[in-house]
Write a structure and sequence with these properties.
Ribosomal Protein S8, Chain: A, domain 1, Wheat Germ Agglutinin (Isolectin 2), domain 1, 370 residues, homodimer, seven-stranded mixed sheet, 4 domains, 11 helices, alpha+beta, 39% helix, Hypothetical Oxidoreductase Yiak, Chain: A, domain 1, two-stranded antiparallel sheet, 14% strand
Amino acid sequence: METRPYVSWQQMNDFMIDVFKAYGVPEEDAKICADVLLESDRRGIESHGCNRFKPIYIDRIVNGTLLPVTKIDIVKETPTTVVMDANNGMGMVASHKMMEMLIEKAKTYGMAGGAIYNSTHYGIAGYWTTMAEKAGMIGISGTNARPSVAPTFGVEPMMGTNPLTFTMPTDEEFPFNFDCATSTVQNGKIEFYERSGKPTPAGLVITKDGGTMTDSGTILKEMRKGNCALLPLGGLGEETGGYKGYGFTTIVEILSAALTGGPYMKELSGKNPDGSNRMYRLGHFFFVINPEFFMGLDTFKSTAGGILRGLRNSEKAPGAERIYTAGEKEHLAWLERKDKGVPVGESIQKELVELRDKLKLPYIFPFEQK
Amino acid sequence: METRPYVSWQQMNDFMIDVFKAYGVPEEDAKICADVLLESDRRGIESHGCNRFKPIYIDRIVNGTLLPVTKIDIVKETPTTVVMDANNGMGMVASHKMMEMLIEKAKTYGMAGGAIYNSTHYGIAGYWTTMAEKAGMIGISGTNARPSVAPTFGVEPMMGTNPLTFTMPTDEEFPFNFDCATSTVQNGKIEFYERSGKPTPAGLVITKDGGTMTDSGTILKEMRKGNCALLPLGGLGEETGGYKGYGFTTIVEILSAALTGGPYMKELSGKNPDGSNRMYRLGHFFFVINPEFFMGLDTFKSTAGGILRGLRNSEKAPGAERIYTAGEKEHLAWLERKDKGVPVGESIQKELVELRDKLKLPYIFPFEQK
C-alpha cells in the first residue's frame, strides 16, 4: 500500500515547468524536461523522476555544471545519421531534438542513428526509445555516466551503469520496453535497500580486497569514497556470467563515446583533480529501425505480441504469481497512478516547498493541506 | 597444457569442404561453411567449431532437416534493408550473402539492417559481425534457437540461448568482440562441466519445482526431457538482475522473428508433435553501422581502443592475473593455435575418420600416425 501523499500530474508538471523557467530554461525546453522526469514517475521508476528534479537538474544549473539554455550544434548530418554537440546544455532537450530528426530519417530511409556529446543526464533512456515506438519504430539507446562499475577481475569503478535500452512496438496495450542498467543494480537500488533497512544481496558490490559487501549504509559510504564498485550483471568473476554483463556495459561505454570521439570513463567524473566541479560531458547514442522497411509494422507487432503472451502464459515456478515481460510493470504502475498522481516522500516534499518558497511561486501542494 | 592432437588448419579446411561437397553443398558454399566453423576453433570457441561439423551439419543434411543447396529468396530489399527467405538451406550461406549486401548498403547509406527466416544454424554470431568490423564498421547480430531458457519466475524452456553480439573496430591488433549467449551458460558449457567431472554452479539451471540443480550429468539428462531449463544471465528471480538477462534474451527472440514474421519459441523445437524431425526454421537479424557517417573510423577506433586499454590497466582484484576485454581471449587463442592447427579430442577424431572412410576421401590425419 502506498502511504505517501500524491501530487497530481498536472500540478507537478506545471510546477516543474515554472521552476525550470525561473532558472533560465526556455519554456519549450522546460516542457520537454518536465515530461521526461514525470514519465519516469508514470512508469514507477522513482530513481529517475521528480526525486532528481532538484539535486540533478536545478542544483546543477545553480552550480554551473548544467547550462539552462541548450545550444545545439549539428556537427554532422547525413540522410541516416546525426552527430550533435549539446554544449553542456540540457541533455533531455538535445535528445528530444535528436529523436525527432532520427524518426524523420527512418521514415524515409528505414534506419537512422545519432550520437550526442558534451551532454548532461538525459533522464530515462526509455523515454527516447519510446518516442521511436510511438512512431511505429524500434528504438535503441544508451548513455555513459560517471564511473561506478568495475570490470570482471577488477575492483576499480571504471564505467557507468550504462543502460542498453530497447523499446519495440507490439499489438498489446503497452510496448516491449527494456530499460535498465547493465550493472546488476545502480546506486538508487542500494539507497532503496538502505531506506528499507535491508542488506544488499551479496555479489552486487566488490571491495578493493576483492570481496563483497552487504551492509547497505556502509556500501553507500564507501562508494562515495571510491572504495568499492558495482559489479556487472552476472556478478563476480566469470562463473556466473559476470563477463557478459561487463561486455554489455563496455558496448554502451564505447558507443556513447566512439561515434563522436567524446570523453569516457574517468573523464566523466564531474570533478577536476582538485575536487572542484566540472562539466559532465556525457555521451548518448540512438538508433531507430522502421519495421515498414522489413515485413511491415503489423507483422512486427503481432509477432512481438505473440512472443510476449507466450512467455507470460508459460509454466510458473511454484509460488510465483505471474510472469512479467519487460515494460509490463511500468504499464501496471501507470494504471495504478494515472488517476492519483505522483507519490512524493518527505525528502521530495521538502525540496518542492523549498523551491516554491525561494521562487515565491503560487502553488499549494496537497501534502500541505491538513 | 593442450594434450589433444592437432589437425592443421589447411587439412581441416580442405577436408570439411570435400565432405560438404560430397553431401551436395556447392563448392563456393562449402568454402563459406568450413570457414565459419573453423573461425570458431581459431577463436577457441570449441562449442561451435569442428565439433559440430558432423552432428549439426552433415547429420542434418542426411536426415533432411538441412538442405545442402541454399535457395535464397530476397523477399524485400530497400536501400538500407534486406529480408531473406533461406528456404531451410545453409544458414551460413544465407548469412554470408546478407552481410555482403548490408556492408555495401552501409558504405552508401551509413546504416543497414537485415533479417533472415526459414534458416538453420548460422555458426558463431561473431563471424557475421566480424565481417562488418573487417569492413571498418560496427556489426550487430543475433539469432533465435530451440527453446531452452526459462523466463524470470517461470520454469519452462521457452527461448533460445539467443546471442546478442557486437563487434566493433579498434586501433588494436584485434577488435572488440562480444559474442555469447544471453543465458548465463549454454548447453555446451554444462557438457564441458560434465566432461571435467565438475558440478554446474548453483543458479544456472531451474527445475520444475523452482529449485536449482548442480549435478552436471543429471542436468543434461533432465534438460533433454524438458524437465529443467537454463536461467537467464543474472540468475534466479529478480534480486540479482535475472530479469535483465531475461530481457536481453527476449529482445533477441523478438528481433529474430518479428522483422520477418517468422516462427519463434516452441515452434523452433525441430520436432513435430509426434516426435519426428521437422525443419528448424530459425531467424537471424543483422545491423551494420558505418562510423564514417559519424565522426569517422579513425576517431571510433582510437576512442574504443582507449576505453579497452583503460579497462585492462585498471586496478585488479587481489589474485587476479589480468583484466580482459571482450574479444581478447579469442585473439589469444588464435595466437596460441595459429601455427599448430585445431586440437581435436577423441569424439571428433572418430567423426572425422568415419566421414573419411564412408566417402573414401584420401586424407590421413596426424592423429592416425603412430
